[in-house]
């Protein structure tokens, strides 16, 4: 076995170092953060804005995103409406006439935010998209209570928005109630609740109330039909529902017309 002297080892090391120095050094290049990191450090509002901009530029993305994102629960929708209503009430100026033009101009943006939210959410609880009568009624009841709490003003022009909301709620009510015409099992009709809604709205929901009264008048026929159905399907039970309802125009699509007002 060959034994290397110190001088030989030193020479070999020098030759090796010389080879390294002749190699092309790969230097780093500046670049932005990876997309995953950018998303991690972006706040929710930024991501929301970016997503909407991408959908506007690439409409096909909307279908894919709808297929991925889960629909919000009813509780979430109602909570959103309540928060918007709180923001509206908190935006009133301190002191002064809260029914005057100045007050309306101060709260107008928050007022419209409530209407826009209703405009987006109500159709999600109407057939044919939503066919569950009880769920539809529950949401419409909550939405009606929100409209009841919208402020009114001395200037009748400022009250057009609320009147239109009642009109649309009435139509949605009619659409949901008409689901019962073909149902073999009919839930308990919430007549008292709708009467209270109509009273609070100053008879602006009378059309839906009259329709519900007509349903109640035909209730013996309905129950006879239901009894026959139960005899052939004994496992089915009557659905009991004590909540209320409301919203829309004759064909249930009236919320689309809200855009001309807001």
Keywords for this structure?
single chain; about 260 residues; mainly alpha; Methane Monooxygenase Hydroxylase, Chain G, domain 1; 11 helices; about 60% helix; about 0% strand; elongated; disordered C terminus
CATH architecture descriptor text = Up-down Bundle
% residues in beta strands: under 5%
Please report the total strand number as a whole number.
0
CATH topology: Methane Monooxygenase Hydroxylase, Chain G, domain 1
Unreliable spans: 221-256, 258-262
The arrangement of helices and strands along the chain is HHHHHHHHHHH
> What is the CATH homology-level superfamily?
Tethering factor for nuclear proteasome Cut8/Sts1
Terminal Cα separation, in Å? 95 Å
In the CATH scheme, the class would be: Mainly Alpha
Helical percentage: 55-70%
Report on this model:
The protein contains eleven helices and no strands. The chain is mainly alpha-helical and 262 residues long. It has a single domain, classed as Tethering factor for nuclear proteasome Cut8/Sts1 (Methane Monooxygenase Hydroxylase, Chain G, domain 1, Up-down Bundle), CATH 1.20.58. The termini are far apart. Mean pLDDT is 79; it is low at 221-256 and 258-262.
Gist of the model:
The chain is mainly α.
Helix and strand topology:
Elements: H1 6-22, H2 35-40, H3 44-57, H4 60-68, H5 74-90, H6 101-121, H7 133-148, H8 160-177, H9 191-200, H10 206-217, H11 219-232
Helix pairs in contact: 5-6, 5-7, 7-8, 8-10, 9-10
